[in-house]
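Lab notebook, bench 4. We co-purified these components, and the gel suggests they stay together. Before we commit to crystallization screens, I want a quick structural picture of the whole thing.
Request: model the full complex, all chains together.
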Amino acid sequence: MPAVLSLLAVAGTLVLGLYAASFAWAAARRPAVSLPFESGMLPQQHAASRYHARWYAVTILFLAFDMEMIFMYPWAVVVADMGAGAVVEMFGFLAILLVGVVYVWREGALRWT
Amino acid sequence: MPDMSPPEEAQGPAVLLVVVVGLALAWLVAGADRFAVTGGPLRSFVEPVRSGVRLLLEQRRTTLAPDRLLWRVGCVAVPVLALLSLAVVPIGGQTLWSTSADLVWFNAMEALLWAAVWLVGWGPNAFHALTGGYRFLAQGLAYELPLMFSLITVGVAAGSLRTTDIVAAQADLWFVVTMPVAFVTFMVTAAAFAFWGPFAAPVGPDIAGGVRSELSGVDRLLFELGRAVFLGAAAAMGAALFLGGGSGPWLPGPVWHLLKTIAVVVALVAVGRRVPVLRPDRTVEVAWMVLVPATVLQTLVVAVLLISGFYPG
Amino acid sequence: MDLTRRLRGWALARPRVLVVDGAGSDPLRWTVESELDRRSWPLAQSPAETDLLLVLGTPGSHLSAAVDVLWGQVPQPRLRLDVTDEHQIAGLLDTAVPLLARAAESPDETVPQAMPDADGSSAASADDTAHDAMGKERSAAMTAAHHGDDGMDHAGHEGMGHAGHAGHDVSGHGNHEPQNGMEHGGMGHEGMGHERQPGAADAGHAGHTSHAGHGAGAHGRPEVPRGEHEGVVHPAHEDMGHAAHGHSDQPGTTATGHVADDSSKLPTHRTTGHDAADAPSRRHGPEHSEHAAHPAGQDHAGHSSGHAMAHDAHGGGGHAGHEMHHGGTVAGLAMAQTGPDRDGLQLDVLRVSLGPVLPGWPTGLVLRAEVQGDVVVAAQLSWLDDRRGGNAGEPRRTALDRLASFLTVAGWITAARDARRARDSLGSPDSGHRGEAAELARAVARRVRRSRSLAWTLGGVGRVQHGTNGVAGDEILDRIRRWCDVAAGDDAGGLTAVPLDDVAVALTGAELGTVRLIVASVELGRAAPVPKAEATHA
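Here is the predicted assembly.
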């Protein structure tokens, strides 16, 4: 743990060092204030809007799987000791989830345009 | 298995070594990539350094009503996360931080990258950047699971999530032999998480550079640096997890690991620069319908091999 | 000190270049791109990653305004060069690196105070350069004047940059900050200094010059009555607003009936900007129409109510005169509106412009789009200024050029590079080179044609119906493959241009990346502007 904290510290120092170098050396210290790039036009509205993520159905599917994956890491370590039973249980469960994936795919949720 | 991290008193130099290795890997990736794009072997490896210095010279930018704090956090987080992921990559046969869940740590750093990259896209209040950020999330949804399955496959075969154990478990046979699908998937998903090559949609030219379209100066440097470190770390991790890490005849282990890492980077660049950017709305479907089942099958094959006593130890 | 200077020069030795080509300067652009490829100077995708802004030919008034906006978005150190003659390119690019390095040495904080000084001394050096160059050629003189102005400092350009936003900033973003005010002052000043430079008064500078004036004006400086500029400055203002907010008189506004209708009624030229309530809002009923009209209105309030008034406008915190506005404005810019989604929900609709300067798209093409997330729900295509006469003639090289642009948008940089190389060498006087180029062209065409990943990622999208005879239309891949045939020399036929309106119809409902690819895959019609009456009724 201390090792990773010191790595974090060194990485942070590196970042700070780069900022300092940039501050000392850059052609201009104050950041340029500009409107966001819109191909040469002036923006008409703030871009920060409620972005319609059309793949929201995928997020639900992902969550279902991701929760399962949390259990799969410890499973990977003990599967050798547990033997065939653990394999059957895990892949039976995964098979059910994959059926869900196929269903979602047939419903067209994996394509959104 | 014993804790293979360096003893307390050696940690200072070890930490610096990790950072230096991270920067070197980034340089390797950027140079090889540049070579694939423009040619000229020697110059290609000078150019990334030149770009870096130039970005230090360049003025930073802010936009109209940006989310300054989150934007800054995102830019800083990308390289920091990349370097942190290197804590569990074996360098010279040992990792900086050796835990019973190294693979989870590596995975977690990549998962945090979701947030970091999205924040970089959200910060500037700009249309192209925002679109890029959301593209990255869509891409993450597609590639996270194949990545996790390929990591778990390795863990199953080695019976441990500790990187050094996994390398040791390949003394007789590299894992790539029994798990080629997991290896390829790992490299593909690593490229996707570094939004590089065919997976560059979040920074694609069709959205004028996407997430990074408003970045300049040191902010851009950090972002690009983090991206290259991530890709380099993934190549080194791939070489350790699937290609036996430092194992090999005649040459010392670290040299072997370096050579394998270079080979992985070269292969990645050679293949990745041969194809156009793939549209995320197409790749999500393939990721779920092809990569996920394929990696699950791969895990199943390895699990069956394991309980039939194929893997020693 | 010398070491850092050399390091600077080294770091800036391969600047990233943003190329903006005026109408009819395709051959010039090809020469420039081949020179850039030869030097391996990368092309920039956005102003944020630009070091060198190259303006080719003589951009029309709208494009000049866009160039000024872009210029304002380029971080320092930066350099802008105007290129009008292809024989000058190599020499010009050679001067770019030392000029950039010089630009890197003078941080902008010092500029406002140092202004008069810098103006005097560097203008002298600019004079020298201009003098030398003027002996040679007109374009050289123009460029040299630019050099001088850039090498001298960046205040002027900074000024323009801000001027670019000035219209927007009017409602008070950041203008309350004292240092900003100072900066603006500096800019105005520089703007004038710039205009005084010999050679700068050259016709080619018109856009540039007018913009400097714009900068000075929009920041609320008392207008200095100077006859020669009065005529220039005001049109520039008009142009800016006009460029940014709807083009009732541009070709292609008929894209989708209601869009054209809407935009043609936006108060683009209104001097008060607040009588917008009568602009019929397509979807939200009358109470929202003010929102729709807002950005245009606001700009023009600042601009047209006299420059001295500009500060009042932002003093009002963006709500001055916007009594009908319900909190839709933040920092001087409207928030996105809501509109019905195809799923039957009310979701945010964001209005964006793609083009006139966007990687892979022909310069001057503007797509005014409304997007929900990354899906375009309304699209309207038009050309800024008159872009006729853009074609260089030889179909094979043109096809390779289009292919290169398309591949750029598709993110296939290596293939795009090869297509550019083939295009450039095909024009070489040496027949050996031409033979190699033909071979390379065939190789690129074959590669693109046979690419499975391209076929997979683009398959089945981008059907564009054109003509009134009920032709089924073709998809992106069909069009690209036809270009490949022409590029490989298998098909001597030219490329059939598709009217913008037909393209725009195909864009509605497509994802943003697809939209970019569809437009890049079409040889676009460059027809003369449609008369206004027709445009609104189509």
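The longest strand of chain A covers residues 32-33. Worth comparing against the SEC data before the next meeting. DSSP finds three helices and one strand in chain A.
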